[in-house]
Amino acid sequence: MIRKEFTIGLVVNPVAGMGGSVGLKGTDGQEVLGRAIQLGAIARAPQRARDFVDKLLPIRARARFVTPGGIMGGSVLDELDPVPDIHALDGYAGRPGSRTTGEDTSRFVAAVKGKVDVLAFAGGDGTARDVLDGMARGDGEPCPVIGIPAGVKIHSGVFGLTPAHAALVVLKFLSGEIGLGDGEVMDIDEAAFREGRVEAKLYGYLRIPVEPAYVQGSKQGAPAGLSDDENKDRIAEHVVSSMEPGTCYVVGPGSTTKPIFDKLGLQKTLLGVDAVMDGELAGTDLNESGILALVDRLKADGKQAKIVVTVIGKQGFLFGRGNLQFSPAVIRAIGLENIIIVLTRSKLASLPDMKLRNDTRDATLDAEMRGLYRVLVDESEYKIVKLE
User: Fold this and answer.
1) pTM, whole model, 2 decimals?
2) Which of 24, 40, 190, 234 could crosslink 19 through cysteines, CB 3.0-4.6 Å?
3) Which residue(s) pair with 276 in the sheet?
4) Predicted confidence (pLDDT) per residue in 336-373, tens digit
5) 250 in any annotated domain
6) Strands of 63-68's sheet, edge to edge?
C-alpha cells in the first residue's frame, strides 16, 4: 500500500554555483566566495531548489519539509505559493545575511538522517561531500539522497539531470516505482590538477533512488594509454588547421581542448575558458562578462567568435557542468551555429544512449538547442549526435 504522507529533507547551499559564471571554477571556501561576490556573482541555488519543489506539486499537499531555517532552505520554501508544510530546524547559519559553511550542511544532515523519507540537497560536488560527511556522523541510518544540480563542479553520480529530473526521481521513489542503489560522490583530485590533469576522485557513496534516465552518472576520467592522447592530438591538429583568419575561438575547459593550445604553443587554463585568434591569445581565464566584452569588441570590428567545447565523459553534458562561463547570454551572443563540439572516441562511446545533454540554467535555451550536431571525434572525422 502506498503511503499517503511523506517527510522530505531539503538543504540548500545558497552560494553553490556562484563561482561558475565569473570564472572561479567553484565556490568552495570563504575567500573564493568573497571574490565571486566582488565579481558580481548571483546566487542561483535557491531558485534551483524552488524549481525542484515546484515539480513536487503532485505530493506537496501531503509532504512535510524538514529544512534549516533561512537561506539554507526555510526562506526558499516560504516564497512558494502555496507555502508547503515546513519544519525549519534552528541552530544553523542559515539566517538572511549570514555566511554558511559546509559544516552547517553536515550538521543538518546528521540531525535529520533516519528521520526523513528522502533528503534533497541543492549544490555541487563540494555539497555532496558535506552530505556524505553528515551521513557518517551520529546515530540513525543513512537516508536516501538526491542532488539538485546547482554547483559548478557536478561530477558525482548522485544528481538529477536538472531540478525537474531530481523531482521526478523523488516522485517515483516515494510512489514505490524504483528502488535504491549506491551513487558515487566525486570531486576534482587536487593533486592531479596541480600536475595539469583533470581527474575526479572518489570520496564515497550515498544511497540514491535508481533511475538512470533521470540521474546522471559520475564523471568518466580520461583512460590511461597513448591511444586516447593520440586521439586528442589529432583532434587538436584538425581544429588548429581549420581555424579561420580573423575569427576568435573561445575554448572551454578540459583535457580534450588543452592540446589545441599546445599545438599553438600557448598556455591553456585547464579549468578555465581561454580565447585565441590568429594564433595569439585573445583572452585568458575569461568569465562570463569577459567573454561578452570580447564578443562585443569583435562585432564592433566586423569579426565573429566561435565556441570550442567538449563534453563531460559518461554524463554527456555539453553546457552546465564545469563550464558555466558559457552562460545563456554568452551562447546567444556567439550563436548556436558557431559551436564546435570535440570529444574523443572513448567519450563518445561513454555517452548515455549516444546522446548529449544540456543544463544551461535556461529552459527556453535548452529547448531551442535540442537537435542534431556534428561532433569532431578524430582528424577530419565527424559523428552526428543528438542533443536532447
Assistant:
1) 0.78
2) 24
3) 249, 281
4) 999 999 999 988 988 878 899 999 999 999 999 999 99
5) yes
6) 85-89, 63-68, 6-12, 118-123, 145-149
